[in-house]
Amino acid sequence: MRKLAIAVLACLLLTGCAANWQAQEVRYKIVSQESQSSSEFFKLELVGDAPKGALKPEDLKNRSLLTFRAEGAQVGDELLCVVEQKKGSAVGDSNVVTSLQSCKKA
User: Please, which domain of life does this record's source organism belong to (predicted)?
Assistant: First the structure.
């Protein structure tokens, strides 16, 4: 029984370092459009300050987004995007990964 308790506690400690954060409707402005190989990207800048609670707020300031993920948008428009940040566990990759999802014109 003691070994089982130790094993469960060890598992909890190893997975407890992982973290997720999600914000609804973070506002970005499209500042330019660029091409890389066969893909078109919008370069985005955060409008205002990063939302509170972000795992890595500096990763929210400047982002790239494939143009087809913001259909009908163009340079100068503002977008509202769902932003998600995930941090791996201490055992695996502990880097913060930031992704934009469900972007729409503001």
Answer: Bacteria
- Look at residue 5 and tell me if it is in a domain: no
Helix H or strand E segment including 33: strand 19-36
User: Using an 8 Å Cβ cutoff, are 17 and 94 in contact?
Assistant: yes
Spatial separation of the C-alpha atoms in residues 53 and 69, rounded to whole Å: 25
Residue 12 resides in a domain:
no
- Residue keyed to tokens 């919008």: 42
pLDDT 10s digit of each residue in the chain, 106 long?
555 444 434 444 444 556 899 988 999 999 999 998 889 999 999 999 999 999 999 999 999 999 999 989 999 999 999 999 999 866 666 789 999 999 999 9
Torsion of CA 93, 49, 84, 34, to 10 degrees: -90
